[in-house]
Amino acid sequence: MHHEPSLIVTIAASFGLALVLGFVAARIRLPVLVGYMVAGIILGPASPGFVADVALSQQLAEIGVILLMFGVGLHFSLEDLFAVRRIALPGALLEMTCVTALGAGVASLWGWSVGGCLVFGLCLSVASTVVLVRALERAGLLESVTGHIAIGWLVVEDLVMVLVLVLLPPLAGALGGDVAPVSEHSLLITVLFTLVKVAGFIALMMVVGKRLFPWLLWQVAHTGSRELFTLCVIAAAIGIAYGSSVLFGVSLALGAFFAGIVMRESSLSYRAAQESLPLRDAFSVLFFVSVGMLFDPRVLVDNPLGVLSVVAIIMFAKSMTAFTLVRLFRYPLNTAVTVSVGLAQIGEFSFILASLGVTLGLLPKEGQNLILAGSLISIALNPLVSYAVEPIQRWIRSRSRLARFLEQPDDPLAILPMTFTSEQLTDHVVLVGYGRVGRRIAKALYERGMAYVVVEESRDLVENLRLKGLPAVAGDAVEPEVLIQAHIARAAMLIVAMPDALRTCRMLEVARLLNPDIRSIARVHSDEEAALLQRENVGGIFYGEQELANAMISNIDTQKKEPAR
Fold this sequence. Notes:
Helix content: 55-70%
Strand order of the largest sheet: 3-2-1-4-5-6
Number of strands: 6
């Protein structure tokens, strides 16, 4: 019997139309994801003509989310996650509380029930995994302190939403839903059981998975089959994500993230990330197409003020809340702006929660449409707002009074203590960045008896270095005040151990203004960044893949000179 091949039609139509409209968006200087979402609107049920399988498209989009978070986990260690706990945990909880209260307050003005207001507010409080990670990747910040804070913030939001999705059904009756209320005893058991399952999943991944999956990756790699290796990576990402969702009740994204973290223990993690990259990019396109399919443009005509209110909460109130919280934790202005802009959107968890709220009779259908409209608009505008990060910072810094207020000069970690001697702060090395590369450089400097001052955005790292008696300054090295505190004027060399060519150029500009004779060494991620720094006359430029090739070539030359054994 003839039947419609729904899977093939959905994939072909989604990829084909996304390619065309993405190309058009790029040519008119709009973010390509705007083209992807417009493709979804055209393929969705709200527009005339061909209608793709929306449910199937959403499942394909989930694969994109899984692969994306798996890739993030491959570049993100538990140490990185633990290092930002002091800001990510309270920051995410406070931000979600404030935005939920604001969203619920607006919904109450529309006459909705308590449960509907609560669900609506929660939907506006949680950011999209895909959009945030793509924004960090586009800015080259995924492996920076700012990126770690944003990802840690996202992990906390995901954990909270897992708990909300489990607790909402038993609470729905008490909140005005269409289900019978449950007893306090049953609710307490549900909460405890959920917490135990999440804790059990994390413990299992950290104890068993940390040993099992890297070993499995090695065994497959030893077969010499590239396709088997790729299959192992994809099977692990999707299998662990699905298994964790079914067995432990955690989200697919969170399960995939922890799968990536445990895979990172293998020395083959870089290869695993590279092998999964094409599939990750392809399926993430389907995520944006699926967002467009859910959107009904009629809501813009039926309730324009409601849409405007939702977008304002997501893109302004939520963003300003995150900005204020990051600054209250005394992180640099650059970190606060970047994190707040990255969080100024909502996505997949909002869809899931809104759908559950409608099913339970808590959220009116109008609320779901407003959430979808707010999601599509905020996702479409997020890249454009991201481009405004630098202009926003320049505008703030051009207002000296505002800049002084935001930079909080009374921060003790931003000022180098007087206990360090002049010998330690003369002809020394200013080391910007104390990540995996920075730590190795610092160790080498110590072994050579060379004095150095660390400049690092992570306050926790600076506190730990201060406790060890090492000179360290908290702040963004792009700021002249931070480099002045590192005594750049008397330094012999500036070493930038973080791969951000544009920021490195600005650091060099400030450093040379204060110390024209300073020497410099920088790290880059690509040939294009290396070319940019060469034009700035950086003394030493190191590109990971190139340095690895040079070391291997040097080893070849050495072995040629040695007699055969």
